[in-house]
């Protein structure tokens, strides 16, 4: 059940008259999460749930799915045909002018832009001003509970350990001259996650050069590269506990299958490390000082570090993403490249900082997670300071 009173207080503070939730065929997972609906139940007909800034919530459901929102408080309206829907919707929204929806102007934040254009047009036709729910979503969907914070740290201990064991496994196979492909190591990591009660929406990335020059490379069985002596190995690993409400932990580390890391690799890692550390420092100092910052500003700090080192064109993705019950969550992203994320970084949220440099010959990325509390921000796990020489 949503905390209606807390939502209403936040809307009044933001001068928003109401928050309109809408779904059809489970297209809006944000609505399901905030309203506590989950992914179960039929949604073959449109439903609307309106929380006004003051007063009782209201819901509009189809007659053949009248029970769709019965777990939520508020007055129920029912429709059958589209004409009845159009006639009833004004009653649902009465007394309001400025309405928040899962909408993003120009789709600047695609994670939020989940309501179709036609439904937005329908609401605007009723002379309502539609504004983005991005900041409301960040507070009521992306913010973590104390239990979620604990689940993140506990999952992180396991992921960190499995990561070290995966590097050790790669070294063991190379020393013994036994074949081990990227896909084999990826599957071993997944098996370790499952053995420790963790799950992941997509498998981790295990990549040697030049595949690690592709930020979202995916090993394929029978087609991935063998891991050999002299290889630079990137491991990007994310997982959470396999239980409701758990949140992800997401890291990237680098290892070298040799006893001494070549300077060509170490140099690029130092630049990436500086970008990572500068961005994390900016967040820590800003939060400690009570200074409001936005996602795009964090991206700018990391990106400028890499640009000044002469590798700006090789940093081809945002600096970081929100982390939640989905590995790519619905809070502020550290992004001034793919979008200009102007959402404020708010307490009780978590995000990655993961700059990278991707050259044709090889790529380097270093990723940490940053959790923001009320007056303090911190990296939640181990921090890599240099490429690991795996055969030392």
What is the compact description of this entry?
Helices cover 33% and strands 20% of the residues.
Element layout with pairings:
Layout: H1 4-13, E1 18-23, H2 29-35, E2 47-52, E3 58-62, E4 75-79, H3 82-92, E5 98-101, H4 117-125, E6 129-132, H5 134-142, H6 146-176, H7 182-195, E7 198-199, E8 205-208, E9 232-241, E10 249-256, H8 263-288, H9 295-308, E11 322-323, E12 349-353, E13 356-358, E14 363-365, E15 368-372, E16 377-379, E17 388-389
Parallel strand pairs: 1-5, 3-4, 5-6, 10-17
Antiparallel strand pairs: 1-2, 2-3, 7-9, 8-9, 9-10, 11-12, 12-15, 13-14, 15-16
Helix pairs in contact: 6-7, 8-9
Rg from Cα: 23 Å
Largest sheet composition: 6 strands, mixed
Assembly category? single chain
Uncertain runs are: none
Descriptive report:
There is one protein chain. With 392 residues, the protein is α+β, with helices and mostly antiparallel strands. The radius of gyration is 23 Å and the shape is elongated. It folds into two domains: 4-141, Creatinase/prolidase N-terminal domain (Creatine Amidinohydrolase, Chain A, domain 1); 143-389, Creatine Amidinohydrolase (Alpha-Beta Complex). It is 33% helix and 20% strand. The protein has helices at 4-13, 29-35, 82-92, 117-125, 134-142, 146-176, 182-195, 263-288, 295-308; strands at residues 18-23, 47-52, 58-62, 75-79, 98-101, 129-132, 198-199, 205-208, 232-241, 249-256, 322-323, 349-353, 356-358, 363-365, 368-372, 377-379, 388-389. Strands 4-3-2-1-5-6 form a six-stranded mixed sheet. The model has no long low-confidence stretch (mean pLDDT 96). A hairpin with a 4-residue loop joins strand 13 (356-358) and strand 14. Helix 6 crosses helix 7. The chain starts with a helix and ends with a strand. The longest helix is centred in the middle third of the chain and has 31 residues, at 146-176.
């Amino acid at each position: 059940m949503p905390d209606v009173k807390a939502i209403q207080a936040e809307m009044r503070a933001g001068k928003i008259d109401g928050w309109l939730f809408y779904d059809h065929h489970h297209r809006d997972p944000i609505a399901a999460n905030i309203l506590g609906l989950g992914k179960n139940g039929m949604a073959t007909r449109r439903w609307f749930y309106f929380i006004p800034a003051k007063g009782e919530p209201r819901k509009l459901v189809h007659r053949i799915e009248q029970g769709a929102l019965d777990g939520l408080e508020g007055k129920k309206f029912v429709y059958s045909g589209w004409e009845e829907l159009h006639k009833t919707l004004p009653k649902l929204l009465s007394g309001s002018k400025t309405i928040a929806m899962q909408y993003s102007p120009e789709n600047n934040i695609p994670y939020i832009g989940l309501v179709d254009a036609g439904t937005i047009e329908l609401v605007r036709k009723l002379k309502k001003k539609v504004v983005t729910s991005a900041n409301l979503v960040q507070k009521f969907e992306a913010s973590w509970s104390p239990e979620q914070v604990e689940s993140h740290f506990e999952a992180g201990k396991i992921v960190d350990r499995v990561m070290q064991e995966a590097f050790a496994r790669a070294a063991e196979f190379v020393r013994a001259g036994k074949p081990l492909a990227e896909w084999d190591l990826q599957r071993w990591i997944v098996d370790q996650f499952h053995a420790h009660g963790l799950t992941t929406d997509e498998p981790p990335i295990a990549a040697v050069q030049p595949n690690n020059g592709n930020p979202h490379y995916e090993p394929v069985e029978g087609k991935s590269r063998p891991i050999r002596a002299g290889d630079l190995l990137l491991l990007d690993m994310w997982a959470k506990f396999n239980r409701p409400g758990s949140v992800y932990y997401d890291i990237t580390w680098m290892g070298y299958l040799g006893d001494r890391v070549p300077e060509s690799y170490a140099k690029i890692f130092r630049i990436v490390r500086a970008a990572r550390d500068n961005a994390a420092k900016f967040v820590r100092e800003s939060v400690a000082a009570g200074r409001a910052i936005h996602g795009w500003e964090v991206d700018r700090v990391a990106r400028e570090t890499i640009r000044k080192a002469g590798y700006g064109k090789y940093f081809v993705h945002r600096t970081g993403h929100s982390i939640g019950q989905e590995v790519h969550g619905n809070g502020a992203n550290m992004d001034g490249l793919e979008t200009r994320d102007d959402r404020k970084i708010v307490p009780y949220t978590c995000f990655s900082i993961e700059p990278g440099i991707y050259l044709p010959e090889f790529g380097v990325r270093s990723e940490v997670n940053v959790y923001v509390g009320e007056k303090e921000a911190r990296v939640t796990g181990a921090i890599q300071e240099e490429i690991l020489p795996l055969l030392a």
